[in-house]
Each structure stands twice: as structure tokens, then as C-alpha cells.
Amino acid sequence: YESIGPVWTSRIREVSDRIRASPGVYVTVVEVQFDKDGNYIDLNFLKSSGIQAFDESVPYSWKKLPRFPNPPKNLFDEDGILRMRWSFTYEYNV
Predict the structure, then answer these.
(1) Short-list 12, 35, 28, CA closest to 92
(2) Which comes out higher in pLDDT, residue 6 or 68?
(3) Structure confidence at residue 8 as a pLDDT band (50, 70, 90)
(4) Which strands make up the sheet holding 24-34, listed edge to edge?
(5) Looking at residue 70, what is its pLDDT?
(6) How far is CA 49 from the centre of its chain?
(7) Which of 55, 65, 79, 90 is paired with 5 by a 20 to 30 Å CA distance?
(8) Residues with Cβ < 8 Å from 24, sequence gap 6 or more?
(9) Which long-range contacts (CB under 8 A, 24 or more apart) does 41-48 make?
(10) Taking a C-beta distance cutoff of 8 angstroms, is the pair 94, 37 a contact?
(11) Do the beta carbons of residue 92 and residue 23 sit within 8 Å?
């Protein structure tokens, strides 16, 4: 979180200024995939926040920070891919 958190927080603040949404808590859940060196490969949405701009902030942020430093080798699947579930929660107040 120390790596992706500041990037995502900055992006979500940018997009929240441009949207119209009801106040509330919005959660996006994704599975992020990395190769054996910790390089970002792809991500799959597991749960949408319901606000496209909030959801799009997640892959935008991972592309800005394309490497997951020092991924633990014991977390990799047999195919050599590290799949991690991440939850991004934003409390939107107008």
C-alpha cells in the first residue's frame, strides 16, 4: 500500500472533482497480476464501485507504478504469476 496508495489517492482526488455522485462509500475490488520480477501485467475487476471514474482510477494508478517491489516468491501460482486481491475504498462527500 505504501507504493500504490499515494498514486491512487492523488488520482481519486482529481476525478472526484469532475464527477457528480451521491455522497457515500465506494469500493472497487480488483485482482492485480504481476510477473516473477514484480512487473505489472494486468488486472481484473472483481467488484465495481458503481462509479466509472473511481474504477478507472485503479488501473491508471497501477500503470503509473508498474512494479511491485520484492514480491514474495512463495505467493506465485504454478504458472509464475502473482495474483493479489486489492480493495480500494473511497468515502465521497460533496
Answers:
(1) 12
(2) 6
(3) very high
(4) 40-47, 24-34, 82-92
(5) 79
(6) 12
(7) 79
(8) 91, 92
(9) 41/81, 46/85
(10) no
(11) yes
Q: How do beta strands 24-34 and 82-92 pair?
A: antiparallel
Dig out the grid coordinates for 78 from the structure: 504454478
Q: Give how far Cα 79 sits from Cα of 35, 38, 84, 85, 88, Å.
A: 10, 14, 14, 17, 27
List of residues 6+ apart from 39 with CB closer than 8 A = 66, 67, 68
- Beta-sheet pairing, 82-92 with 40-47: unpaired
Residue 40 CB neighbour total at 10 angstroms: 17
Tell me the residue length of the chain.
94
Residues 6+ apart with CB under 8 A from 31: 43, 44, 46, 83, 84, 85, 86
Q: Give exposure, 12-27, as e/b (b: 16+ Cβ within 10 Å).
A: beebbeeeeeeeeebe
State pTM to two decimals: 0.88
